[in-house]
Amino acid sequence: MTANRIATLDDVARAAGVSRATASRVVTGQGPASPKARDRVAAAVAELGYVPDAAARALVTRGGTRLAVAVIGRTAAVLDDPYVGRALAAAATTAAEHEVGVSLHWLPLHEPASLARLAGSRGLGGLVVINPTRPALETVPRSLRGRVAAIGVGSRDVPSFDVDNRNGTDGVVRHLVRTGRSRIAMVTGPSWLPCGDRAVDAYRRVVRDSGGEVRVVPGDFTAARGAEAAVEIMARWPDTDAVFALSDLTALGVLDGLRGLGVDVPGDVAVAGFDDIPFAGLSRPALTTTTHPVEDIAAGAVRAVLGSRDISPVTFFSSTLVVRESA
Amino acid sequence: MTANRIATLDDVARAAGVSRATASRVVTGQGPASPKARDRVAAAVAELGYVPDAAARALVTRGGTRLAVAVIGRTAAVLDDPYVGRALAAAATTAAEHEVGVSLHWLPLHEPASLARLAGSRGLGGLVVINPTRPALETVPRSLRGRVAAIGVGSRDVPSFDVDNRNGTDGVVRHLVRTGRSRIAMVTGPSWLPCGDRAVDAYRRVVRDSGGEVRVVPGDFTAARGAEAAVEIMARWPDTDAVFALSDLTALGVLDGLRGLGVDVPGDVAVAGFDDIPFAGLSRPALTTTTHPVEDIAAGAVRAVLGSRDISPVTFFSSTLVVRESA
DNA sequence: CCCACCCGTGGAAGCGCTTCCACAGCAATA
DNA sequence: TATTGCTGTGGAAGCGCTTCCACGGGTGGG
């Protein structure tokens, strides 16, 4: 009981009357130890309230005990979306189940080399990037290759875990067609997020197959942009009878913009979103959308990074259509 | 270039032709170093892509290099609210500005001692608890006292950083009174979150002062509960002409419940929320609410924990009324 | 021209831990 | 009883880093 110092393994060993080596074996559960030694060390640990120092342990075991999670972007588009919070919760929880710590890094959108610094400590068992942009992904240091995964589709080099945009979009647009819409517009995601390309492809295909015209306007996943986009769309193609937005937030904005225009939803124009955020069911009309299994995606990414097997380039999670009032 | 090994300070020193001590001084910026040595070390660092090992550094500097952020609760009430995400973003960003790493811990609501384990590594510079419950806060180990802060009002023992619920509520309820409402009901937060008490107090005071009747029903910060609460309120006090919910999500639910009852908002009943979440402006009618400077709060908490001065028991951040359509 | 002084430097210790290795016991076999 | 084999143990090295301390070589003043 030397002062109020935090107990070290040496203290434990001394209190238990064994060597530090033995104490270490008991504490880690690795290596042989007699029942007697085991008991005495356990007692000493309990009495002293000993907790192993993670830094010291990491130093010698050379890591694997920590997982970095990086979120790219501090803009409203990222912050306003419940998506990131849910992903973080799932990632943290999954990592904890594997007894791995999580370090959080919230990086500005445009700052090359910001991910590079994460490789800093050798204690890093892996890296999971949420909202990955291609430039950001390119700064991931080579030393981490094989231990990196992206939540959302990123670059070719980094394995991605994402909702299947193509199938999801396909489902939504087909639903629109099926319910009699034939002049369907789409609001995409921001151009710096590569994840939208497949969605646009799917939209294009379905629209063309049904003999419709492709009407695409760029979005940025914000509600504000959705409202603008609605006005743009109706000005450019006044006969539009459905709008599909690749984000619920944007779809909600579209709803708002359409309302401002005096357009009836779903009477005149149907609106569909993507993600099924908690508010989707709360808007009037309630938003028709597609689920986004973020928790599963995040958990999958974490498990993949932590696992020992090679990670496949892309893992898609399927989403299901949620039909409410707006379409 | 010995194999693909990660460069250590020794490598840098050797490459720069100086001792490890000198290299360390240059890298950390502490202690004297000649311009020449500085240049050569910097060059070596750049060439080798050297990044200091956090574990090794923490081991010898005895911590302060890492901040733990813990979120309590994995329920929808926590996950659905953009609040937590914003707080995390701000906390991570602020910590990064101080060159401090952040470890994220997302703990189940009821698991005593879960916070205790965080004290594990001595490298811990502090702890910030988001969504603090009293029981959780009680498990914070003594070794961390003085380096802990709660985002949201928690226990008496842990300094709190929160929005000023009292003033905020006061402002909202006064607004309701001012606009002619006299039978005002309130939906509170969950009982396990102590932060709501001051709000209820404020509500009580204003209502009593204006000669009204206190009508309080319990909430849990979810939208679903808001819808239920609306029905409850209208059944119990049919002449209610305003409902104030301590959470926007709940207020949105109230809006929904009222709509189901055929009650006109704001014609028959005014509805006001709390927090000004992104979606608040998107509902119909748009929600009247009060801002919640989460970013400032989180940044304040992080700075306080990281700072050297004593933290005052409670720091309140003021919120401002946002009048939209619903009240 | 010599001494005191100071700046910059390298040697070495040590942070708390794991793990290799050698070795001491003891039981089982010859 | 002498040998083999095993299990459990302690000594010691070393992970990558910071920092104390002693020391060398420049500068300035006497």
Question: Which helices and strands occur, and which strands form pairs?
Answer:
Two copies of one chain form a homodimer.
Chain A: H1 9-16, H2 20-28, H3 35-48, H4 54-61, E1 66-72, H5 76-79, H6 82-97, E2 101-107, E3 124-130, H7 134-138, E4 148-151, E5 160-163, H8 165-178, E6 184-187, H9 197-209, E7 215-217, H10 223-236, E8 242-245, H11 248-260, E9 270-272, E10 289-290, H12 294-306, E11 314-317, E12 321-322
Parallel strand pairs in A: 1-2, 1-3, 3-4, 4-5, 5-11, 6-7, 6-8, 8-9
Antiparallel strand pairs in A: 10-12
Chain A binds a DNA duplex (30 and 30 nucleotides) through residues 8-10, 18-22, 24-25, 28, 30-34, 37, 52-53, 55-62, 122.
Q: Can you tag this structure with a few keywords?
A:
homodimer; about 325 residues; alpha/beta; 434 Repressor (Amino-terminal Domain); Rossmann fold; six-stranded parallel beta sheet; four-stranded parallel beta sheet; about 15% strand; elongated; DNA-binding; transcription regulation (chains A, B); Peripla_BP_I (chains A, B); transcription (chains A, B); DNA-binding (chains A, B)
